[in-house]
Amino acid sequence: MRLVVARCSVDYTGRLTAHLPLAPRLLIVKADGSVLVHSDGGSYKPLNWMSPPCTLRTLRRSDEDAAADPEGPWIEQWDVVHDKSGDRLRVRLHEVFEDSSHELGIDPGLQKDGIEAHLQELLAENIETLGAGWSLVRREYFTAIGPVDILARDEHGGSVAIEIKRRGEIDGVEQLTRYLELLNRDPLLAPVRGIFAAQAIKPQARVLAKDRGIDCVMLDYDALRGLDDVTSRLF
Length: 235
Hints:
This protein is an alpha+beta fold and 235 residues long. 20% of the residues lie in helices and 41% in strands. It contains 5 helices and 12 strands. It is elongated, with a radius of gyration of 23 Å.
């Protein structure tokens, strides 16, 4: 991973056009090829970025280039072009404050908290909670972008990918969407439908899930543990 802190301007052209005026920013170039532009704010979300597959080329300025830039002379230009869409991210470095590279190695992945991991385990053990005739294929089903929490088959033998969260938000729906895109490329599994399961699901996440053709299921932790008989409730 390369980390560059520099005074820079950024232009994005393609499906949309965007410009970031000259200012100090953090530039991240990851081993997977992605390039991210961050400010000192805005939480985790970058101001602009280019996702892989993409190609990064650098250019040192000439005197003619320097004179033509209305924001002043620059030192180096990054041209990042998406290999499929042709979208382009152009970063012009005017002053570099820090430039370092680090080998991070293989990341072990996100370790889920106890409640979320336990929900996955309980639902796998009680997969018929989702319907009579359902069967478990496996937990933590591997894909190229991470493991799907549960892969199951419904009463008709159809493949179902289940993503489990303690609190269901839009990010979880997006994550499941990416898994489904990959799983549906496998002729042995396709078609694969998705279920977004959580103890609580935000309205925005429900709307997005419905738009993506994903079903939402509320999980009752105590009921899965056998501590609460939902059939005996008055409400």
